[in-house]
Every structure is written in structure tokens, then in C-alpha cells.
Design a protein that fits this description.
28% of the residues lie in helices and 20% in strands. By secondary structure, it is an alpha+beta fold. It is built from 7 helices and 10 strands.
């Protein structure tokens, strides 16, 4: 029986190994046109205009030669709040200083009241607010309107799951992975589910992080309200990435002990 011990150990070890092809990012996968190093990869052509939706948070700021006029549109010192919170790592400052779009698509602005911007792009919404100001004041006021950071949710095999905020106008899927603690080694990186919000509904997309062609995909850049979900591999049942080797050692140790006991018991018969 002892001669079978090395074979059993090898089988256990082989069944618990994970191929590098399943965990390495940006490979040239078989069947795809190879993308060589230093090769220029153009961004995918797709509709990149984000439509403002209910519960989005927008940052609206004003500028004018007349400082008193500008302060009339400022909501309770929001500029000072943004400056004070700018150093907070991962802080969602715009939740406190921005404007939330209600279920009917309106934001309520100082002096202007309710303005409907839901269903519009950022540029279209800025023009609506700009025209609204012209109806009330003769002085020229410049309006800046933008999404208050890119909010997304990471679920599943991340080391830091939850709702995240990237304070950029544009962010890649790898920015999101880095902020979420990258993906667990036992995650199905070839089957990342991306739930994306569209005007009036959602769609579920599947992304292969192992594929270098992702760089030219329309899903290379994440959008506001994206949800990322990573499933675990089947081997996850034996333990997570941190204790897999310990679990394997325990299995081999128990197997060796049982074989040893069996051999001693057999020799004594």
C-alpha cells in the first residue's frame, strides 16, 4: 500500500493546482488576433455619452466675475467642504457637496429651484442650468456640471468588496479592480460579470480579464453605477487563496497517517 502514497499525493496536488492561464491578465488567447507589445490599440467605438439617471449625484459649480453673485448659488459653503475633504482617501465628498437627482429627474438648486436634468447627458444638463440662470440674472455666470465621481459596486472574489468611488472623469476596469483589492486568485477572471445601467434598465455583460483584446472592448472603461461580480472557482471549496496550501498539507498529512496506520495494522495481523 505504501507504494501508492506518492501517487495519491501527486493526484491531490495536481487536482488543487491552478493554471497560470486562468489567473494571468491580458493574454493573447488562442483564436484571437495577437496583440504584440508596443502595438497601438485604439479604443473601441461606442456610445460613450452617459445619461443622467435618478439617484445620480452631480457636482454643479458656478463661476462669475461677481463673487457675491457666485456665492448666491453656492450651497452652504460646498466649495470649502470640497477643499477640506479633498485629502480623504476614498472619501465620497460629492455625496455631501453635490446634488442628487430625484426619482422624477429633478435637482433642486439654490435660487433656481427644481431643474430637470434626468435623461440628459452632462453637456445637455449643463446647458439647461445655464439657460435657467439667464432667465433670472443679467450677469454672466459660467456653469460647470459633471458626475460626482464614478460610483461602482464590487461583489464576490475581491479582497475589498463594496461600493467604491473613483474621483475621475474616466476610469478603466483595472482601476476598479485595483480599488477593490484586485481579484482573488481563486476568482473566475475569464467570467467577470458586469451589470451596466442604461436609460430605463440594465444589461448583464461578461468580460474576460485574461484576454488582451479587452483593451479594445467597449467595456474597458467602467461607467457610473456599474456592478462587478466575480464568481469563485470550483476549487474554492477546499479553501481560499491564503489557506489553500495549508488545506492541501492537511489532506496529505491525514492520508499519510491513515496509510501508515493501515500498514502497521496489516503487518501485525
Amino acid at each position: 500500500m505504501n507504494r501508492f502514497l506518492p501517487i495519491i499525493c501527486i493526484l491531490l496536488f495536481a487536482s488543487s493546482c491552478i493554471s497560470n492561464k486562468r489567473i494571468t491578465y491580458l493574454q493573447n488567447l488562442p483564436g484571437n488576433e495577437p496583440i504584440e507589445l508596443e502595438e497601438f490599440i485604439p479604443f473601441a467605438e461606442y456610445e460613450n455619452r452617459y445619461i443622467l439617471q435618478p439617484f445620480d449625484v452631480v457636482d454643479i459649480d458656478f463661476a462669475s466675475a461677481n463673487e457675491e453673485l457666485t456665492q448666491a448659488f453656492e450651497f452652504q459653503g460646498s466649495r470649502r467642504m470640497r477643499g477640506g475633504m479633498g485629502g480623504m482617501m476614498g472619501g465620497d465628498m460629492f455625496y455631501f457637496t453635490g446634488y442628487t437627482i430625484d426619482v422624477e429627474g429633478y435637482v433642486e438648486l439654490p435660487r433656481l429651484g427644481k431643474v430637470k436634468i434626468g435623461g440628459l447627458t452632462e453637456d445637455e444638463a449643463r446647458e439647461v442650468v445655464q439657460e435657467k440662470i439667464k432667465d433670472y440674472f443679467k450677469d454672466e455666470i459660467y456653469v460647470r456640471l459633471r458626475i460626482g465621481g464614478i460610483r461602482f459596486t464590487a461583489l464576490g472574489e475581491f479582497s475589498s468588496s463594496g461600493t467604491k468611488v473613483i474621483l475621475k472623469n474616466r476610469a478603466t476596469i483595472f482601476d476598479a479592480l485595483a480599488l477593490s483589492g484586485e481579484s482573488n486568485i481563486l476568482a473566475k477572471k475569464n467570467q467577470l460579470f458586469l451589470i451596466r445601467q442604461y436609460d430605463g434598465g440594465s444589461k448583464i455583460h461578461q468580460i474576460n480579464l485574461n484576454d488582451r483584446a479587452l483593451l479594445a472592448s467597449p467595456f474597458f472603461f467602467i461607467r457610473n453605477n456599474d456592478i462587478l461580480y466575480l464568481e469563485p472557482m470550483n476549487i474554492r471549496q477546499f479553501g481560499n487563496a491564503e489557506n489553500l496550501s495549508s488545506s492541501l498539507g492537511l489532506i496529505i498529512g491525514i492520508t499519510s497517517s491513515l496509510l501508515l496506520i493501515f500498514a502497521i495494522f496489516r503487518n501485525n495481523i
